[in-house]
Amino acid sequence: MSPNTCWLCKIFRAEENGISSKLCLEEVIQWSQSFEKLITSKYGPMIYKTYLKTEHSDENIEFWLACEAYKKITSQRKRISMARKLFTSYIQPQAPNEINIDSPARKAIIRNIQEPTQSCFDEAQRIIYMHMERDSYPRFLESKFYQKLKHSLQNNGNNSIVN
């Protein structure tokens, strides 16, 4: 198998990723309509993350998804724990997966990290969303990665990839 298609096999191996249904051409085409459609679709975030790894910027989607999960935490104890993990992984200077946010957003998080609220990462998440939407999303749509995925679905008889 060529290295160009290896990612496809990894993504759709149900035992590794828990994917038990199909990725269809309709969903993949909808991703080109807007970044929001990509990021809120069933498989879009995972496919986009795989692409971002090729750009060495997958920390952006990881942070954005972690923020989405963080907002759903209702326990204050769990929120504090998750906030500290987000901070040490993505926000603090020299973090292993440091994201590109402006100084005011970073300072606001540093001020609020001791007693984090549900919305304390909202501004940083908004900035990262804009980075992805403006920078890497247009490149994703033009990439061989996305084009090959779309082409493979178009050439498949039932327009879907089954695991």
From TrEMBL:
One Pfam assignment: RGS
Superkingdom in the source lineage: Eukaryota
Domain RGS: residue ranges: 34-150
InterPro entries assigned to the protein according to its UniProt record, in alphabetical order: RGS, RGS_sf, RGS_subdomain_2
Name of protein: RGS13 protein
Endpoints of the signal sequence: none
Gene from which the chain derives: Rgs13
Source organism per UniProt: Nyctibius bracteatus
PROSITE patterns for this protein: RGS (PS50132)
